[in-house]
Amino acid sequence: MRETYGVVLPDLNLAELTGKLIVVEGTDGVGRSTQIKLLKPWLEQQGRAVLDTGIKRSLLASRGIQQAKEGHTLGRITLSLFYATDFADRLTHGIVPALRAGFVVLTDRYIYSLMARAMVRGVDPAWVRNAYSFALKPDAVFYLRIGVVDLIPRVVFSRGFDYWESGMDIHPSEDMYESFLKYQTALLAQFDTLAQEYNFEVVDASPDIRTVFERLRAGIARVLSGEPREPLFAVAAPAAETEQATTAKVVEMPAASERAAAAEKTDQGSVSQALAKAAEGDASR
Q1: pLDDT tens digits, residue range 266-278?
Q2: What is the pLDDT of residues 187-212, one digit of tens each?
Q3: Are β-strands 201-204 and 50-54 bridged in parallel, bridged antiparallel, or unpaired?
Q4: Which residues, at least 6 apart from 10, have a Cβ–Cβ distance to it below 8 Å?
């Protein structure tokens, strides 16, 4: 039975939402969009209808968010409400209808990125959770986890540092590089906390595109086949909750079902072509 985090939207029958909601989470520059571009055609080759969506794609709010951020003057509450409006519009007019029609919905980030950003900026966590309490609980959340050291070259050699992604609104006196380090370090720590709270499946995002894709593909095949979950990657508990900090340990991804394994053999050529296109796209950005 489909559930929300507390509040059900008016006239929404959760029992009608028979599709699958799969989230790919992670900080900026970690490779989420590249993986979504690979996962969608793979799922379609299995005969599944797929909707891909992501933040700032709402017809109602996306343009307003972009215009408001250009002035670098947005307050933290206003910013949070803008993104909550964007999410609510996409949920109502995109995600819910697709799930009702039996689609697989792939979303590039979900409420967790929005929550992490708001909390890092000092917004009350209880207020943030309440603001997104109408969100549907996903069938799986795959968190692409990476360290700041590995993240920096990806950002530098793609689109460069961004005002908001560098947290310059929080650290206005710092240069953008130092602000990026502080902001992303705090953001990744917040993601690790949310990973435990919301039971993310954590995938090491530091390897090459193909390796990450294969891990995601195996995990999603398992979710769609209804196999029980096994941990992909253990997240260390926050320092406040443990006396001794522990590091995350990568474990080998369990094999997908026999049906998924057979399907994998049939689409290797298409996957290779998609990976090549994705690599070319990354190189050009």
Answers
A1: 455 555 565 555 5
A2: 999 999 999 999 999 999 999 999 99
A3: unpaired
A4: none
Structural domain including 131 reads: 14-277
Residue 239, both tokens: 């320092």
The helix/strand/coil state of 13 is: coil
69: which residues sit within 8 A by CB, 6+ positions away?
Answer: 79, 163, 164
Own/partner contacts of 223-232, CB < 8 Å, gap of 24 or more, are 223/20, 223/22, 223/139, 223/140, 224/20, 224/48, 224/104, 224/260, 225/256, 225/257, 225/259, 225/260, 227/256, 227/257, 229/140, 229/201, 230/254, 231/201, 231/202, 232/142, 232/201, 232/202, 232/203
Looking up residue 84, the CATH number of its domain turns out to be: 3.40.50.300
